[in-house]
Automatic annotation (TrEMBL):
Protein name: Cell division protein FtsA
Keyword Cell division set for record: yes
Principal cellular location given in the protein's record: membrane
Main function: Cell division protein that is involved in the assembly of the Z ring. May serve as a membrane anchor for the Z ring.
Domain SHS2: 18-214
CDD domains named in the record: ASKHA_NBD_FtsA
Assembly mode: Self-interacts. Interacts with FtsZ.
GO CC terms of this entry: cell division site; cytoplasmic side of plasma membrane
Organism: Mesorhizobium ciceri
NCBIfam families xref list: ftsA
Amino acid sequence: MSWLGSPGDAASRRSGTLTVLDVGSSKVCCMVAKLKPCDDGKLLRGRSHRIQVIGIGHQKSQGVKSGVVVDLDRAEHAIRLSVDAAERMAGLTVDSLIVNMTAGRLKSEAFSATINLGGHEADEADIKRVLGAGAKQALKAEREVIHSLPVGFSLDAERGVRDPRGMVGDALGVDMHVLTGDAAPMRNLELSINRSHLSVERMVATPYASGLAALVDDELEMGAACIDMGGGTTTISVFSEGKFVHGDAIAIGGNHVTLDMAKGLSTSLDAAERLKVMHGSALPGSADDRDLVSIQPIGDDGDVPLQIPRSVMTRIVRARIDETLELLRDRLNKSGYGNAVGKRVVLTGGASQLAGLPEAARRILGRNVRIGRPLGVAGLPEAAKGPAFSAAVGLLIYPQMASFESHPAKGISGLKMTGTGGKLHRMSQWLRDSF
């Protein structure tokens, strides 16, 4: 199913609106955007539309822990409030959205499949057939396919074909990257959205979305990793030759640093969060032993706060940050894509704003590190231009990149994905017709 025609096909690029929802452990953010076709001269590679955000709403997250919905009522409440705010600002009503998915033990696997062309030209139907053959291998009990993406096509013995449409050969092969997740967390996330009288148009893996927003074209092409550090989870994605080739997630995020500080300094979570934002650093400074930070101990109504050296706090932060980065380094090396990444790592997500984090990441990952902010979207308010909004912006970019993606989930899974008729079906039909 191709939502967007080929970039040159002007008729297939009409304007439309798109709504996305980022349900995180620390915030829920909804964005409504208008998509306008780019002038042909200004086509970014792979991007056929300009994105203008016309509505945004965000809310402190409730009922979500480490990316998993743990309380339906509270999650629904937060989703409802953020969607309402975005709708009011955009002046329209939303009925279905693209949502990101972090939890569910995301797992990337590579598959390849080949079909016989018999010497004729490859067309859409052949591509669909070979993608379907590749994706079928990934369906396992209690797992859902979130993405099944072609990494590269091959014709006969020639590999590295980007778009085989119209080319001639005997055998059409595809190397695929299939990303699966546990079914239950996906269903519960969908349930909390359905209870707000909204339907899920498509689920997109958070690491994919963050990478689309934070990496620049050259990084996508040459190969880079994007690490999205959120409140309750940290995800990692690897892109190579413009394709998303690997995704992973661990259930550790910025909230764990706050929790460690609250325990270590025996202060409240709110006070620990404030200390982390104001004074927290992953880098020990020379004046840390002399600098004193005042802390209000838990349950102590006395007006006299405790004074502790800043170095005590830095040690707590640093221990957790180092552990997280070492885990990410091991995951990256184990993925087999360490070489594809080369020296390029981009950090994004709300928790990436911690002072001294890029230096700590350089030391532990042994690579060049920069902080990535969401790129290529107009109309974002100043407050939403930071790394915390990368995943939401990536969801807006996603439909333009999804032209080759195959969706084997239809009819096989219990999830009511697109293609089951009803409102969802109309929406996907609209996406297909409009773009």
